[in-house]
Amino acid sequence: MAPETLPAVDAALARRLVGAQFPHWAGLPLRPVEPGGSDHAIFRMGADLSVRLPRHAGAIDQAKKEAEWLPRLAPVLPLAVPEPVAVGEPGSGYPWSWAVSRWLPGEVATVDALAGSHDAAATLAGFLTDLQRQPTEGAGDLTGRPLSARDAATRAAIEQAGDVFGASAMLELWEAALGAPAWDRPPVWFHGDFHTGNLLTTGGRLSSVIDFGGLGVGDPACDLMVAFTLLAAGPRATFRAALGTDDATWTRGRGWALSTGLNAYTHYAADHPGVAAQTTRQIVQALTDARTGR
Q1: Contact yes or no for 229/277 (Cβ under 8 A)
Q2: I need a surface site. Which of 138, 151, 164, 285 has the fewest CB within 10 A?
Q3: Are 137 and 253 contained in the same domain?
C-alpha cells in the first residue's frame, strides 16, 4: 500500500471497529496511548484492555501471530507479556486485522533508571534464556532473516550518517559482524525488537515485555540489541555472562544494534528527538563496545 493511501487510524475508527465487532465492549471509554508506535496506533479501552491497530502493511501479521504464540510462551516466561483477548477483522474501511489484549501496567523503561542496574541486566538475560529454551516446532514460517539481508541498507545508512558517527568505525563493526561465524545450532525463539521502548517497569523494576511483532525463530543475536539500547558497560558484561553469549553471537549482536539503530536514526531522528537520542545511544554504545570490549 502506497504511503499516501495508508488508512487514517484514530480513536473514532477504533470505536467503530470495536462497536461493530465486539459490542459488549462498546460502552468502555477508549483513549489513545501516547506516544504511539511507528507500527501501531494503541488505545487503552476501559481499565483492563488495549486495542492495537496496524498503521501500515508491514505490521499486519502481528495480531494473529501474538494470538497464536503468546499464550504458549507466556506461562514459562519470567516477565509478563501481552495476553491476547481477541483478533478483530477488517471493517469500517480499515483493511487489516487488529488486536485486543489485556492492558499491562507500568512505565516504559529508561536509560536513566536502568542503565547501571546489574539486576535489570540479569533479568533481561533470564527472560531471553527462558524464551530460547522453548520448543520451536510448528514455527517454521517464522524463520528470521539473516543479518546479511540488511547489508545494502546498512551500508547506505552508514554513508548517510558517516559524518555523525564515523563511517570507518561503523564499516569496521559492520564487516566484522557479517564475517562472524553464523549461528550453527538449532533455531531458537527471539523477540526480534528487544529494546528499551518495548520494556515496562513497575516500582523501578522490569515487569513486562511488549510488542512481539518481530517474534521468530533462528539466530538469537538480534535480541542482543537491548545491551546497547539500555545498559551501561558493567551491566552489559553482566548481561552477556548471564546469557552465556559466545564471541561470534555477540559480534553479530553488535551488528544488529548498529543496523537497527541506523535504520531508525536515518528515517526518524530528524523529526523525533526521542528517537534521535535513543538511537544515537544505541549506535555509540555498539561502537564503544567494538572498540573497547565494554
Answers
A1: no
A2: 138
A3: yes
